[in-house]
Amino acid sequence: MMIGTIRINLIVALLAGIFTFTLSIGNNLFLSSCIKAGYCFLILFVLTFGFRWVLGLLIGPVSSLEDSSLVNSSSEVGQNLDLSTPDEDEETRQLMKSNHTKDAHSNDMQFSPLNPPKLVTKNNLDPEQLAGALRRMSED
């Protein structure tokens, strides 16, 4: 049992062949690069068959276990969907009234944006201190 189709083999092998061709064209002749890309294509095409076969063996028993568990379970579970809206009861009405009163209280409060502290700059700095700080920074 294999997973996927032969299209997977073609895609993987084609990508590997193109990758091999682009890497080898800079160091080899055109014909040599084509031969290497062809070999890479053929090898990965065959290896992908083996990988798909092994993956099918690993996943095959797992899917058969899931199928047997589905047969044992009730066949009606999950088959019907109830789209009707239930009638409102007293608890739902009370909950909606309490939410409405909370919204009224929150509307009474006014919005106030955050007031972050402003940056303070020193306007009267000694030029000699600035020059000394610049010299120390340039030495490091």
Task: Describe the 3D structure.
The protein has 140 residues and is mainly alpha-helical. The protein is 67% helix and 0% strand. The chain is built from 4 helices and no strands. It has helices at 6-24, 30-72, 90-108, 127-139. Helix 1 packs antiparallel against helix 2 (30-72).
Write the layout of secondary structure elements.
Elements: H1 6-24, H2 30-72, H3 90-108, H4 127-139
Helix pairs in contact: 1-2
- How many DSSP E strands? 0
Strand composition percent: under 5%
Backbone CA Rg: 36 Å
Roughly what is the average pLDDT, rounded to an integer? 81
Structural class: mainly alpha
Helix percent reads 55-70%
Q: Which residues form runs of ≥5 with pLDDT under 50?
A: none
Distance between the termini: 69 Å
Main traits of this protein?
single chain, 140 residues, mainly alpha, 4 helices, 0% strand, flat
